[in-house]
Specification:
Layout: H1 2-11, H2 15-42, E1 50-57, H3 63-67, E2 80-83, E3 90-94, E4 124-131, H4 137-152, E5 161-163, E6 177-181, E7 215-219, H5 229-235, E8 240-245, H6 247-261, E9 270-272, E10 284-289, E11 294-300, E12 305-312, E13 315-325, E14 337-340, E15 358-360, E16 363-364, H7 370-388, E17 395-399, H8 434-444, E18 450-453, H9 456-460, H10 490-504
Parallel strand pairs: 8-11, 8-14, 13-15, 14-17, 17-18
Antiparallel strand pairs: 1-2, 1-4, 2-5, 3-4, 6-7, 9-10, 10-11, 12-13, 15-16
This protein binds 2-acetamido-2-deoxy-beta-D-glucopyranose (8 copies).
């Protein structure tokens, strides 16, 4: 019965139906071919040469090493890259070092000091580029012309290659671009900013070369508006802009204070609300800009979760409560703009190698690997944000981890960067350290939207931006700071990105 009805229906082709049917077929074909032509014209990257990089690395590594809390390499897999400058080339790059899980020694001056160090042991990576497809000459020529033109106006393109990614249909990918030399930078003079502490005051500590403060980040597909301090102050009028995190966030916060101060006529109308002086040790600062009735604050929180103590055996020992937000969180709550970070302290050395250190409830884990712990802590942070942040009032940012550039050793074994006065020509690319991936994953699961300030890739080029031996008035060549950043310098760019996001959201 049913089958005969179906047959009947399917075979009853009336002329009108046939007409409609063929019209649909025709318009589909028309649409598809139009779309294909449009797609071909609008994505020139399809015709650009694709190159595969093959990496040989000195030290062996695997993801298993991460779990075991061992030395880790960063993202050394083959990936296709787009070549801007030409055909086959060989280049050798000293690897960029990210704060990684589980490296041996992590502190510049012992456990109570700044979170620097934390790096992979130095290694040289060989890149051998092999061209896979013939280049369509058009784009290449225009790139060469661009280079020449850029050169003659005093602007230099730095990266030689970049990773091909599917072009984002909408918006602009701020992470893809190059550093352009720009004499109109820096955005403020060191002498006009009293907020730069010794550790970041490279010029004050005797660094003579200045080019490191004159590079502007230029995204490939769009422009970042130049930072306008007046406009930024207007954006935060009557509001609280709050940075929470480790000393690298203090670095960015001091940069923001300096950038904003440049628009204030009477510097006396900017002051710390409790008269505190900026030092390395504390992190509890709220600077008021009287003219705009706003505050720009910084709260130190190395892990974002609570650093606690618990009885282990006979003694009370320091632990990290993975299930409890930092007790300072009450001070972040009412903020209008929150910029978080945590990365550098999640290391073998700073976390007692994960032995009897991580605590949940009354349980102190006898041993826990650092990436599991990091994930749990960020979950705790994410739930806190979801529970306590009002989406209509507060914009939340998380700054991705900043790379460090120790060459020829670790922070405490002669690692250095003092000779670098130019950005690197190329970086490893890739997705960056595992912490960024975990952060991204946690943020995707959250209810409150969080914008990632993705500064990892662009900062990788900037080996020239660290204090090196100029992190102190009295220089010692033996210990260098290749983790923090000189001011003015690279963190100014991070703040320009923050400014960009605040304007466009
Ligand atoms: C890198 O290449 C150079 C020259 O081709 C070679 O001597 C060196 O051993 C290579 N290094 C690694 C880690 O493969
Ligand atoms: C690349 O390196 C190989 C061996 O190291 C060498 O024979 C070749 O000429 C190099 N190519 C270029 C373009 O430098
Ligand atoms: C770590 O630092 C300590 C001193 O703080 C030093 O004794 C030890 O040798 C260092 N270990 C490594 C692997 O660098
Ligand atoms: C950097 O500074 C030096 C002199 O201090 C100058 O010769 C050079 O052209 C500058 N620019 C770049 C991009 O290195
Ligand atoms: C900065 O912003 C202010 C206020 O929006 C505006 O009046 C001023 O012209 C801007 N300055 C520049 C250099 O664009
Ligand atoms: C931070 O400052 C506030 C306000 O003065 C104070 O109540 C709080 O105890 C301070 N916290 C720390 C950790 O210094
Ligand atoms: C980077 O490029 C500049 C000019 O484009 C060149 O002078 C310099 O030697 C290059 N550095 C490296 C490490 O290849
Ligand atoms: C951050 O930028 C890098 C390129 O610099 C990219 O590989 C990575 O996926 C980006 N991460 C996020 C979360 O956007």
């Amino acid at each position: 019965m049913i089958s005969s009805m179906e047959r009947q229906r399917s075979f009853s082709f009336k002329p009108t139906r046939l007409l409609v049917f063929s019209f649909i077929i025709f318009s589909s074909i028309f649409f598809i071919s139009t779309f294909t032509i449009w797609l071909t014209n609008s994505t020139p990257s399809l015709h650009q040469p694709t190159i595969h990089l093959h990496f040989n690395t000195v030290s062996s590594s695997s993801s298993a090493a991460v779990a075991a809390g061992d030395t880790v390499n960063v993202g050394l897999r083959s990936f296709p890259v787009q070549f801007l400058a030409g055909s086959t080339k060989n280049f050798t790059v000293e690897s960029v070092k990210f704060p990684t899980f589980g490296t041996q020694n992590n502190s510049l001056f012992g456990s109570k000091s700044e979170g620097v160090g934390h790096h992979v042991s130095a290694q040289t990576v060989n890149f051998t580029a092999m061209q896979e497809h013939e280049a369509s000459s058009g784009r290449k020529v225009s790139n060469e012309q661009e280079k020449v033109a850029a050169g003659s106006t005093g602007r230099v393109k730095v990266p030689i290659f970049e990773k091909i990614e599917q072009k984002k249909a909408k918006g602009c990918d701020l992470t893809k671009g190059y550093w352009a030399f720009d004499e109109s930078y820096p955005l403020y003079r060191k002498d006009s900013c009293p907020f730069i502490d010794e550790g970041f005051d490279c010029e004050g500590n005797g660094r003579l070369d200045r080019n490191y403060s004159k590079w502007r980040w230029q995204p490939k597909d769009c422009d970042i508006p130049r930072f306008n301090a007046t406009r930024m102050l207007e954006l935060i009028r009557g509001k609280r802009l709050v940075f929470v995190g480790d000393s690298i966030n203090r670095n960015q916060w001091e940069s923001m204070l300096c950038m904003l101060l440049s628009a204030i006529k009477d510097p006396k109308r900017v002051y710390e609300t409790h008269g505190r002086k900026i030092t390395k040790e504390k992190g509890n600062y709220s600077f008021r800009f009287l003219d705009y009735q706003c505050t720009v604050e910084y709260y130190a929180s190395h892990f974002l979760v609570h650093e606690s103590k618990a009885r282990i055996g006979q003694k009370r020992r320091p632990t990290l409560r993975l299930d409890a937000i930092d007790h300072g969180s009450s001070r972040w709550r009412g903020a209008d703009i929150l910029v978080f970070n945590t990365a550098h302290w999640w290391s073998h050395y700073k976390t007692k190698a994960g032995i009897n250190y991580y605590q949940e409830g009354t349980l102190v884990h006898p041993r826990l690997d650092v990436s599991t712990a990091f994930r749990k802590a960020l979950k705790t942070w994410g739930s806190w944000v979801d529970r306590h942040i009002n989406q209509r009032k507060t914009k939340v940012f998380f700054r991705s981890s900043a790379p460090s550039h120790f060459r020829g050793g670790n922070w405490n074994s002669g690692g250095h960067c003092t000779e670098a006065t130019q950005p690197l020509n190329e970086t490893l690319g890739g997705t960056g350290p595992e912490k960024n991936l975990i952060t991204e994953e946690i943020i995707k699961q959250m209810k409150i939207p969080v914008t990632i300030l993705n500064i990892t890739g662009l900062s990788e080029y900037r080996i020239d931006g660290h204090p090196s031996i100029y992190g102190r008035k009295t220089q010692t060549r033996s210990i260098q700071d290749c983790s923090h950043w000189c001011l003015p310098g690279v963190p100014d760019t991070w703040n320009e990105l923050l400014y960009f996001h605040l304007q466009t959201r």
